[in-house]
Design goal:
The chain is α+β, with helices and mostly antiparallel strands. It contains 19 helices and eleven strands. The protein folds into two domains: 3-86 and 324-430, no CATH class; 94-306. The protein starts with a helix and ends in a 5-residue tail after the last helix.
Amino acid sequence: MDKKTEAVNISRDLIEDENFKKRNRKTEKMFTRLRSLPFGLVLIMVLRKSVKSLQCIVNETMSGLGFEEVSASAYSQARYKLKHTAFIELNQKAIVDVLYQDEDFKKFWGRRVLAIDGSKIRLPNTPEVYDTFGTLAYSQGKDSDVQGEHPYALGSVLFDVLNRVSIDATLAQANAYEVDLAITHLAHTLSDDLLVMDRNYPSYRMLATCVQRERDFAIRCSAASFGVARRMLKGEGADSQSVVLKPCAKQMPMIRASGLPESIRVRFVRVLLSTGEFEVIVTSLLDETCYPTHDFLALYRLRWDIETFYGLIKTRLTLENFTGLGVEAVKQDFYATIYLSGLESLLTDQAQALLDAKDTQYPQKVNRAVSFNAIKTQAFSLLMSGLAADVIFQQLTAMFLKNPCLERKDRNPPRKNSSATILLNYHKRLKKQCF
C-alpha cells in the first residue's frame, strides 16, 4: 500500500472512529444524536474552507450530498462542538506517521531537513480573540504615529522542507517569543534531524538547548549576532571557524537556572551569495570533511521553502480569511490548513514523479491552485465515501497533471514595492481564488 492510500485510509478510519470523536468534541453529550450535521460532516466542512459566503457553502454541501438544507447558523453552532485537536491528531497519525514509517522520503546529507520559523497571522477583531491572542500596533508607515491595534497570533511551524509536511505547529499569542516556540518544537524532532533557522533564532539559549538535546542545527547569523559572526560578515578570517561560545554575564543566571551548558563548541561557516554579500551560518556540524563549507549555501537555501509555505497558506489557502469569529474557529482553520497542506503533499507525489520524468526544457511542478481545488472539491468522496480510493486517486492525479507550472531556477527578479492602490486593485479585480 502506498503512502497516499494509507494516509487517506487512516483519515477515513479516524473520522468514523467513535473514540476519535469522543476525544475531539467539546463535551461528552455533543454529537450523540443523529442530526443533519454529524461529527464527520462538520469536520470535513471545516477542512473545505472557502472564501464564499458561509450560507452558500452550506447550501452547496448539503444539496451536493443529498441532505436536508440547514442554515449557516446551524453549521456555526455545530462547528463549535468540534475541537481543533481533531486536525492535530489527523496530521500526526495520517500524515507525519505515514510519511516517516520507513526510510522512503527525501533527505539531505542523509538527514531530514527541518525548518523552524514563525509568522504573524492577522485574526478577526472580536473581544474573545482580542483577549486570547493579544494585539499588535499598526501605523501608516515606519515613521508615522501608531494608528491603532489589531488582534494577531504568532504561528510557528516545524516544517520538513524537502517533503513539504508540517511535523508540528503552534498558534501562540501575538507577543510570543519565537525562540520559546522553537524550543517546544524540539520534542517532535529526532537525533539525526538537521534544523535550519533564520536570523531571529541564533541566541545562546537556542544553541545551548539544541546541543544539550543532541540536535544538529544550521542557523543564519545577523549583523547584530555573535562577535565572530560580525567579523566574518565583514570578510575577516577564514570561511570556517570552530569556536567555543559562552553566555554573557547578563544571561548566565538564566542559563544556569535552565540547566543548560555554560559553554558550547560550534562552527561558523561563511558562504558567498550571488549578490556578492556574505552569509554566516552557525552550526553544530563541526566535521569539515563530512560537511564541507561550500555545501552550506545549498543547505540554507532549502530553508526558503518554509517561507513559501507561509505564502501558500496565507494567499493560496487564504488562512487569514477566517470562517468564524471565535477562538475555536480560528484554531480550527489554522490546524485544518496544516493538515490539508500535508495531505496535498502526499496526494501529489505520484503526479510530481511523472512530471519529473518528462524531458522538458524547464522542470515542471504541480500547480498548487489546481491541486488544492481538486482536493477540496473531492474532499467528501476522499475522506467519507465508501468509494475505492484508487478510483479517486486516478481522477485526482489526472487533474494534478493538467496545467503544471514551470520551475526556472536561478531567477532573481527585482522586488517591487507596490503602492497600496496597485495592491488593492490586484485583490479586488485580478486575484483568482483557489476555492
